[in-house]
Amino acid sequence: MKYHKCVKYDRVSGKVVKHRKLSEHQLATRDLSKKYVWLEEVQGVTDSYDPETQKIIKTYELPDLSDLSISVDVGVKMAINYIAINLTADEIQANKEKKIYDTDQGLIRGIEDIIVMISKGAPLNKNSLPVELIDKVNVRRRYRGEADI
Questions:
Q1: Cβ proximity of 7 and 16 under 8 Å
Q2: In the beta sheet, which residues pair with residue 83?
């Protein structure tokens, strides 16, 4: 038996109240004259996007079904669209800060190594630091828009 992804739609509020799979029999015998109706869900538009500057939001597309005196046509389906919208400056900044925060754990061992070198009186310069540590620092600097060291 084949099942279809469906949504329970409130015709008055215009909101989706439930998601469920319905059998072909259930889909064919549903009552389309009520306040709440089951509509088949179909994939609509899916935008490509740049996660650095955009995010995807889910939207629902279907005709106006708010007139309860008219039954919903049996062929009406709800299209689920995923639309790209631009991030706000605050969201972009928060994403950058999260990327920097996510690299903190990788720097802890490097900082420990530097402290040991200092305590032993070893000379410190870029060439005396592990390449991996320099790479991690440079990644963080790039997130902030700064030049590599």
A1: yes
A2: 57
Rounded average pLDDT per 10-residue block, the chain, 149 residues: 93 94 93 94 91 92 92 93 95 89 80 86 81 86 88
Q: What is the model's pTM?
A: 0.59
Closest CA to 10 of 29, 34, 30, 31: 34
Instruction: Name which of 41, 40, 42, 31 is nearest 72 in CA terms.
Output: 31
Of the candidates 131, 109, 133, 113, which has an alpha carbon nearest to the alpha carbon of residue 122?
Answer: 113
Tokens of 76: 């009406």
Cβ contacts of residue 44 below 8 Å, gap of 6+? 61, 79, 80, 81
Nearby residues of 62 by Cβ (< 8 Å), 6 or more positions away: 9, 39, 76, 77, 78, 79
Domain boundaries, the chain: 3-87, 90-143
Determine contact, residues 50/12, Cβ cutoff 8 Å: no
Please state whether beta strands 54-61 and 77-86 pair in parallel, antiparallel, or not at all (unpaired).
antiparallel
